[in-house]
Structure formats: C-alpha cells, structure tokens
Amino acid sequence: MVKGNFEIPHAHFKKDWQNRVKTWFNQPARKLRRRKARQAKAKAVFPRPTAGALRPVVHSQTVRYNMKVRAGRGFTLEELKEAGIPRKLAPTIGICVDHRRKNRSLESLTDNVKRLKAYKANLVVFPRSAKKPKAGDATAADLQKADQFTGAIQPVIKAAAAAPEFVSVTAAMTDPKKSVYKKLRIERMNIRQVGPRQKAALAAAAEEKAAAKLGTS
C-alpha cells in the first residue's frame, strides 16, 4: 500500500492482457539449434580450435578501468618479434595481429610473449600436402595424436585482489604534537602567507630606513 496522502493507484484489469503476454516456450528448441550450430562450426573449422584465434592480454582503457585485464584485438609486432614468429605467418597459424597497438610497459610485453611461446609449444600444424610436408609441419605421429581443441584458448585469468594489510596503532600515531593533518594545515598556511609576509617585511624595512634617515638629519 502506498504511504502518505497520495492517490490510490488505478488497477487496469480490462485491457486484454492475454494478447500482450510474451512467452518463451521456444527456448528448448533454440538450445538444440545453438548446439547443432556449434557442432557444424566445429566441423567446418576442423582441425582448428573451435574458439578461434589466440588473443593477447591487455588492460582496459581510461583510469577507471585500466586495472582490469581482458582479451585484446591482437598481438603487437614487437611481441611477435620477441616470440620469434613472423608477422605474416602469425595469422595463418591462428594468432591475431594488431599492428596499431603499442607496448606501454615491459610487463605486458613479457606476459604476451610467454603466451605466444606457450601456444607455439603446443601447436600442431597440419601439412597442406601429406606427401610434401614443409618445415615446421607436424610429423605423422603427431598428427595421429592431435585432436581438435574445444573451449577457450589460454583464457584470461584475473589476478586475485591482494589481502589488506593491518597496522597496529601506536602512541606516536596518536600524539597531537605529531599530527600530520596539523602539519599539512601549517604548510598550507605558510604557502598562502608568502605574499603578505613579504609585503610586511618590505614595509618594515621602509619604516626602519625612514626612521634612520630622520635620526641622521
């Protein structure tokens, strides 16, 4: 019930609500359709992974979100160079490349290079022609053991938040004579009084000079 002296809400029960009800009885069929679509996609991209290409770990934009990490658009040319992967070969073996992104820190460069090396170590490259394999292609024994990878490729793992540190309050912290707040207020006042103090000092010097001049005359 509404509190206060307000108008009682009107109940509109005669508006053919049965014609405006939206039902979701097609969800079981949609679930089956999505499953069949995933199976068809996996069959079409075989033997490549079902999740697509490998992506780097990047920090989000702006000060509000830059502490969060997510999957980026592609690896930088510097990261590919450090991992020993040619820039033109990378897209052909399932690695996204972004020539516009730049490495702003050594940590992100190191993390993504490790990501590339781990991917490269587990990579199985199928030869275009079994009779004429090229350098870097997997052997026949590796091809027999290989299977299509399902799920996310090296999912982005968010670091757990650090546990807070607690410090016991000592007598020196509660001493009013060593108050940080008071010290900041005093320093703020000193900065604001630079001009008036200089003006007062100049006025006092002028008065002393005038008094000395009168005394000598």
Give the low-confidence spans. Answer: none
Order of helices and strands: HEHEHHHHHH
Total helix count?
Answer: 8
Question: Rg from C-alpha positions?
Answer: 36 Å
User: Which of globular, elongated, flat, extended, rod-shaped describes the shape?
Assistant: flat
What is the helix content?
40-55%
Number of strands: 2
Could you give the order of strands across the largest sheet?
A: 1-2
State the end-to-end CA separation.
95 Å
The quaternary state of the protein chains shown equals single chain
Molecular structure report:
This protein is mainly α. It is 42% helix and 3% strand. The chain contains 8 helices and 2 strands. The protein has helices at residues 27-45, 62-65, 77-83, 106-121, 140-145, 171-174, 180-192, 194-216, and strands spanning 57-59, 69-71. A two-stranded antiparallel ribbon has the order 1-2. Helix 3 (77-83) crosses helix 4 (106-121). The longest helix is centred in the last third of the chain and has 23 residues, at 194-216.
Topology:
Blueprint: H1 27-45, E1 57-59, H2 62-65, E2 69-71, H3 77-83, H4 106-121, H5 140-145, H6 171-174, H7 180-192, H8 194-216
Antiparallel strand pairs: 1-2
